[in-house]
Amino acid sequence: MIRQSISFTEPNDKWLKSQMRTKEYASKSELINDLIRQARKQQVQLDWIRAKLEKAESSGFAHESKDQILHESKSLLNG
Prior knowledge:
single chain, mainly alpha
């Protein structure tokens, strides 16, 4: 593994420490790696949605732009 030094804002450090207290993760590094894996997975999903939107838009199926549809999809996902 590559070793790096990073700095956190106080709220982020407090949140990381609270997560460590749950004993779900053995270290901050493990937690951060899990967060990165989740973000990468989410990016793959967003890329898939974006590709579907572009295909639909180019076929004339959608009347809204891909940005409008993507914004609406994200709004629905985020509550």
